[in-house]
Amino acid sequence: MTDISIIELPGRVCIRGATLALALAIPLFAGLILFGGGLQGETAQYAGGCNPVSAGKCLWEALVCVGMGLLMLALYRRYVDEQGPLARWLSDDALGAYLIHPPILLHPVAWGAAAKAMLLTAVAATGRFAASALVLRKSPLRAIVQSL
Q: For the whole model, what pTM was predicted?
């Protein structure tokens, strides 16, 4: 058996895999809505547990995640194959931002949902990357993160 990294997958394989995964996800989603009780307002099974609707939802989520991941890999590799100074800085601190983001909390703001989402995204991303840069550049963790 050969060991292949996702980075070595050709673009056409990524596109075919994404197409297959997303093509399977569409009828699965429709089936979950039609036959899972969603049209009748019975949404309890969608929340989890050991039932066919929850299992189908998990499969749907996996198909969408894999399909979108492969599609983004192919498209970014083809059209966004450069890295400027800002992108390089963000890339260097991405793992640290991922590790640090859980403790960063924002207090609720009395705005609409869309405005809150935009604020949360902007503040959380800026804060995570700033905290990551500060913590990782000034600590021995930098060597560990760079070795990953």
A: 0.53
